[in-house]
Amino acid sequence: xxxxxSLLLVLFCVSLTPAQSQTLLxxxxxxxxxxxxxxxxxxxxxxxxxxxxxxxxxYVLALSICTNTKRLEIIRHExxxxxxxxxxxx
Length: 90
Known about the structure:
By secondary structure, the protein is an all-alpha fold. 89% of the residues lie in helices and 0% in strands. The chain has helices at 2-14, 18-49, 52-65, 69-89. It is elongated. The model has no long low-confidence stretch (mean pLDDT 82).
């Protein structure tokens, strides 16, 4: 899915001028970052409320679109802790 979206974006950018394509790519990466932050906030809020399955889903969504390696490690670490908690509760 992510690959398909990237390919479509590249094909669209080929038809644009260099300045237009740079602007579009910058907007796309900013939008991805904002969505990732939203999923991470949701996951942490769900975890604090004790809604662990919903927290896990939000962590997985944040992990799937994360582009920053440092943030990726943080999300993986929090997700691993949550999965350990879920296994313990079962």
